[in-house]
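Dear support,

I submitted the protein below through the web form. The confirmation email said the job was done, but the results page showed an empty box. After a refresh the structure appeared. I'm attaching both so you can tell me whether what I see now is the final result or a partial one.
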Amino acid sequence: MFVRHMLSVAATSREYYVRLPPMYDPNRAYPLIFVWHGAGGTGMSNNVPIQQSSGANAIVVGGTALVNATEMRTQWQFNNADSPDVAFFDALVTEVTGLYCVDRSRLFSAGFSSGAWFANLLGCVRGNVLRAYGVVAGGMPGGNRLMCTAGGIAAWFLHDASDTENPIAGNITSRTRLLTANGCAMTTMPDMPPPCVRYEGCRPGYSVVWCETTGAGHAVQGTISGPGMWQFFSSF
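What the results page shows now:
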């Protein structure tokens, strides 16, 4: 069950939801997964259902974006490193790791659509905080113009080739940046779940997995994204 909380960030009240594992043990250090919803969602809706796969083995936190005054719906601000949502993420890390027993070496981020763009931004500017991240149907904010944290970060991608709302080229740009940063080869081997592939030759601990589907359109594809991301995160 997700429980609603509020947090003040730069004098703005921000909403987030926490799901503790069943039989939460305050003496066990859990991995912490931040999930970022698609446009119009909240911390617990329109999101990657990773909690269905992580079960009793991770704390899951879903932040809620602010309402975009133009579109009149929640929307992550992912265009630059000084986004107020990056400050929100920083505040959430401090808040949640202070409240619960968290393994600080295993912080993860997962996003869908607007939240995937934001997860890609965090992977770029907070790669020294996150251990790995996963995205569904996102893109790379600023293309290659952002100054990303040196050293790269492990990442898992899912995108449908027929997605017209967020074309697959955006995530290809993000993938290409990481393949270079992580020292990966251009060859792949099959990974689970299908149709995922894992790039070979990446530096140890800096894996890149790419999952490309056809016919699903702009969708979270929960039967692939939830199990696939959790398998990826739990390998670290």
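Response: this is the final, complete result; the empty box was a page-load delay. The first strand starts at residue 2 and ends at 9.
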